[in-house]
Amino acid sequence: MASPVAGKKILLGLTGGIACYKAAALTSRLVQAGASVRVIMTEAATQFVAPLTFQSLSGHAVLTGMWQHDDRPDSQHIGLARWADAFVIAPCSADMLAKLAAGLTPDLVSLTACALPATTPLLAAPAMNADMWANPIVQRNLKILRETLPAWHEVGPAEGWQACRTQGAGRMSEAEEIVTAIETLLAK
Ligand SMILES: Cc1cc2nc3c(=O)[nH]c(=O)nc-3n(C[C@H](O)[C@H](O)[C@H](O)COP(=O)(O)O)c2cc1C
């Protein structure tokens, strides 16, 4: 049976965290399931993984800044926001949660999220150190997003081994779990 993501347009935003490496598997799984995937990255995300990895896996140029141009006649963040059937931010940093909650748009990922049509699902996969995840400011930002954006959805984070060599909550969900969450959203 075809996946609900087959034929769908998935915009994947990467933000700065160790879990960026897991977004490569996510991109590949979505493409294998028949989705059309476009990837955008914050500058911080490019410190963790190379845009070329995602260009190769998605088959599309990767945009890393709001001043870059692609072949669209309209502003790229508007064009991408309108193009997407779903916008997935994975990994989603604490910093990105703060920007989204405050409506700040200093990078292409937050700018595109702000321009997303109200009915387009926005799925975030938070990923951070357990103490960051437990930080009341981070949780306050999530509460704002849950209460303010009708199309806001979350997957994870999971508990387990973290890159800071501790166990705890804040690990990004695995690619399979994120794909399942996207499928559930798009099957509605
Ligand atoms: C080595 C290293 C690892 C980091 N890992 C994370 C992380 O897993 N989650 C997170 O929220 N921030 C993490 N950060 C901090 C973010 O990269 C930083 O807040 C950055 O400004 C995020 O920018 P962005 O939200 O525009 O991508 C890390 C920073 C460093 C130097």
Overview of the structural elements:
The protein is an alpha/beta fold. It has a single domain (9-187), classed as 3-Layer(aba) Sandwich (Rossmann fold). Helix content is 40%, strand content 19%. It contains eight helices and seven strands. The chain has helices at 20-32, 51-58, 76-83, 94-102, 108-114, 130-134, 136-148, 175-187; strands at residues 9-14, 36-41, 86-92, 122-126, 152-154, 158-161, 167-171. Strand 6 (158-161) and strand 7 (167-171) form a beta hairpin. The structure holds flavin mononucleotide (FMN).
Task: Give the tally of β-strands.
Answer: 7
Name the shape in a single word.
globular
Mean pLDDT: 95
Identify low-pLDDT runs.
Answer: none
Q: In what order do the strands lie side by side in the largest sheet?
A: 2-1-3-4-5
Helix/strand-derived category reads alpha/beta
Kindly report the CATH topology: Rossmann fold
As an assembly, this protein is single chain
How much strand?
15-25%
CATH class: Alpha Beta
Helix count from the secondary structure assignment: 8
Bound small molecules, by name, code or SMILES, are:
flavin mononucleotide
Q: Approximately how much helix is present in the residues?
A: 40-55%
The H/E string reads EHEHHEHHEHHEEEH
Largest sheet: 5 strands, parallel
CATH architecture: 3-Layer(aba) Sandwich
Please sum up the structure shown.
With 188 residues, the protein is an alpha/beta fold. Helix content is 40%, strand content 19%.
